[in-house]
Design a protein that fits this description.
two-stranded antiparallel sheet; 15% strand; alpha+beta; 196 residues; 34% helix; elongated
Length: 196
């Protein structure tokens, strides 16, 4: 099966005779044409098999992602306490409410009377910042506008005492509407059957 984004590649492989309709399911599946099977096995099969995850591997991956998220949140919690000097007033809301649409409530400045900086923390590793954004987080970002922030925390760098996260103010505009600085890919669809 080919995802829609790979339809052009599928069509090229078919036109070159590399792929043929599957003998048992010709209307929905493809098979590697026998003359090309050795080539396929030599260069592609191992890479495809590496992408498979067992249920246990998936469980471990999800646990690691959750741990990484907590590390990022803890870093930002401490970072905000240092930035504002308001140690007891910074609130790590994600520790007791995962539906808020953000992780930490902080303050724009020392003169702020109430929480007016709502921070969603996104932890990542590597040179390029990336993140997944839930529908709820996007909704809250739009509602909060310039009071909503994304803090992108590179887990590779948090051990450096001078490290500061990448801070994006008003990501509903800066990320969703700015088409030159961020690549966006649809990762999932929620699909429900329409009933009469």
């Amino acid at each position: 099966a080919f995802a829609l984004q790979y339809a052009n590649i599928r069509d090229v492989l078919m036109s070159l005779g590399f792929l043929v309709p599957h003998p048992n399911y010709p209307e929905r599946s493809f098979a590697v044409h026998k003359p090309h099977k050795k080539l396929f096995d030599r260069y592609l099969t191992e890479g495809i098999r590496k992408r498979r995850l067992s249920p246990e591997q998936l469980k471990n991956l999800q646990a690691q992602q959750q741990e990484n998220g907590l590390l990022g949140e803890e870093f930002v919690y401490k970072y905000e306490r240092n930035r504002t000097g308001r140690n007891d007033e910074i609130e790590w809301i994600a520790s007791y409410d995962t539906t808020a649409g953000f992780d930490i409530m902080s303050f724009e400045a020392g003169a702020s009377v109430t929480h007016d900086r709502f921070i969603e923390v996104k932890a990542y590793s590597g040179a390029t910042p990336y993140f997944y954004w839930s529908r709820n987080e996007m909704r809250v970002a739009k509602e909060k506008g310039s009071q909503y922030y994304l803090y992108m925390v590179n887990l590779d760098d948090i051990g450096n005492p001078s490290y500061e996260p990448l801070v994006v103010r008003n990501p509903a505009v800066e990320v969703l509407e700015n088409h030159s600085d961020w690549n966006k890919t649809v990762d999932k669809y929620h699909i429900a059957r329409v009933t009469s």
